[in-house]
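Today's session is about reading a structure prediction critically. Students often jump straight to the picture, but the first step is always the sequence itself: look for stretches that repeat, for charged clusters, for runs of hydrophobic residues. Only then move on to the predicted structure, which in these notes is written as discrete structure tokens rather than atom positions. Here is the chain we will use throughout the hour.
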Amino acid sequence: MVGLFIKLDGPPPAYFMGGALAFRLEFGPADSTGKDCPSVLAVQSEMLAQYRPGVVLWWSRHEGIDRYAANGTLLIPSTEAFREAQKRDFIAAADRFTADGATLVVVLTERPGVGIMTRDQRTRAYPLIRNMVYHDEYRQHFNQIVKEVAATRSNVRTIDGDSLFCAPGPGSGPGALCDDSRGSQGYLRPDGSHVNNDLFGEQVSADLMPQFERASGRGASAAR
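Below is the predicted structure for this chain, in token form.
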């Protein structure tokens, strides 16, 4: 999830935005950062207790990556064990974020951009990148979990992440990659995942915030 805290006017004044997935992940053979992810749980809990947010925004792109079960077993996204754990953990996280009355707004994971293919060959071989490019069904499965949970809970809402970056219809490939180029300014997400904040940060924020306010019930109308 996005690691960001911002403060906006209006009661309750705090919007707490994210952190990271609070369980161990396997990004790739040369990237050990995934083992540190469980430590984020304590950080999230501390911030929730300190700021008591009215709205939590969840925005993650790493839900389709290999992960570890509590007993250390590596779970692969194509397996039923992974899917069951993913749903169970999402519901538990939603319960945790909304325990004090907050609304959880989840940005449905957007398709990566074609800029992801500009990454070096070694990086493109990482499970994280390979799954993002060639296994869009993993992204779709997580989004379906979120939508199913949101359909049964008034305190979980969704935003269409694709609408912030991608035109409707099939992606430009390979896989489901979408073309988010902006003419001579290049790709909105040069590496296919992270926004070029210098050029497009304000634009993406301006597109996101009205949807966020509507979904959270703070705009003109609430939308699921």
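Discussion point for the tutorial: The beta strands are 4-7, 14-17, 55-59, 67-68, 74-75, 103-108, 156-160.
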